[in-house]
Amino acid sequence: MHSNKQSCFDFHVSAVSSTTRARTAALRTAHGTVHTPVFMPVGTLASVKSLTPEDLVDAGARIILGNTYHLYLRPGCEVIEYFGGLHGFMHWDRPILTDSGGFQIFSLAKLSQLSEEGYAFQSHIDGSRHLLTPEKAVNIQLCLNSDILMCLDQCASYPATRRDIRQAVDLTTRWAERSHAAWMNHSTESNTLFGIVQGGMFSDTRQKAVELLLGVDFPGYAVGGLSVGEPKELMLEMADYTLSLLPNERPRYVMGVGTPEDLVEMVAMGADMFDCVMPTRNARNGQLFTSSGTLNIANARFKNDTAPVDLSCTCYTCRNYSRAYLRHLYKSRELLAYRLNTLHNIHHYTSLASAMRDAIQSDEWDDFRNRFYAKRPSVPPHGW
């Protein structure tokens, strides 16, 4: 099964590191071109919590992620479709990627039941019953008018037996074929569909998952099932192995990862795209990312600190506010704390992605990575 759909989607690699698999590329969509490596802030409910779309642009965001499960349940497809899709609904004119909803059903929904047909589940909001099939997941995302759609998949828990993982890979592949067919039948040229590689924490099942998905021939591929409780070393090992199997001419998206260090290591493995709630969620919990590691703004040592969060940062927060003021806001539970902290963390992640693109373009990846770790208390993962 091969995709011959004409689309405005295009992916072109412009530079590759001479010492690693790190690369930079241009990913063209109906709502603009994104340069990779890229970090995508998570806008679960058509909103990156506490920020306006203008804030996101100022913070360097070029593409954001929406959540199919949550938006399907509230406000519902009919409302969003009335506005012509998510872009018009949320006043965001740049690209949007939406996930399929499978992981949220797995982790949030009550009494979810898995079958060949799809996921039967009860809403975590009102207990209403629903069935999410691969076809319905695609159709919901088409209603949202996302630029990049994701296939419905089965994300296995950790730890899991090899037998359970094999069954999950087989089901994910059959769902991928059904998702692809639904996309081919109903999509317009304004969006594209990525397949998701599962396979747990076994190299042979990861390899099998890649082989099966390549047979469906997606415009892009995501690596799923990482950062689900496994040790960091194992996560990096599985990411490295899986990314090495994916085609060079297609974008590679690592789902739900991770720390700044994770991004640096996985870009060196050939990853192009990332999303994670860490910069936004941690911001609301008072943890801020800096070029020398993380800091907890609630710490008493910042009570009279006149310095910005990060002296090398050019974000709105660091240009205008002290650590002492941010600590005061956070300790007082002022809403402005969440906004200023989130602005900073998103800017930190997008600036990191920009620095990685520059390092790849100039073929200075090793120097960049050495400088990155030299400023931090963390050390490069052993063997990477």
What can you see in these coordinates?
This protein has helices at 53-58, 68-73, 77-82, 86-90, 102-107, 134-144, 162-186, 203-216, 232-245, 260-268, 278-284, 316-320, 323-331, 335-361, 365-374, and strands at residues 10-16, 23-29, 32-36, 38-40, 64-67, 96-99, 110-114, 119-122, 129-132, 148-150, 192-197, 220-223, 252-254, 273-275, 287-290, 293-296. It has 384 residues and is of the alpha/beta class. The chain folds into 2 domains: 13-282, TIM Barrel, CATH 3.20.20.105; 283-374, no CATH class. The strands form 5 sheets. It has a 6-stranded parallel beta sheet. The two termini are 37 Å apart.
Number of domains: 2
- At the fourth level of CATH, the homologous superfamily of the largest domain is Queuine tRNA-ribosyltransferase-like
Biggest sheet, open or closed, and with what strands and sense? 6 strands, parallel
Radius of gyration: 20 Å
Integer average pLDDT: 95
User: How many DSSP helices?
Assistant: 15
**The level-1 CATH class of the largest domain:** Alpha Beta
The count of DSSP E runs of length 2 or more, i.e. the number of strands, is 16
Proportion of residues in helical segments: 40-55%
Strand pairing plus helix content: what structural class?
alpha/beta
List the strand order in the largest sheet.
Answer: 4-14-13-12-11-10
Topology-level CATH name of the largest domain: TIM Barrel
Summarize this structure as a short list of keywords or feature phrases.
six-stranded parallel beta sheet, three-stranded antiparallel beta sheet, alpha/beta, TIM Barrel, 384 residues, 16 strands
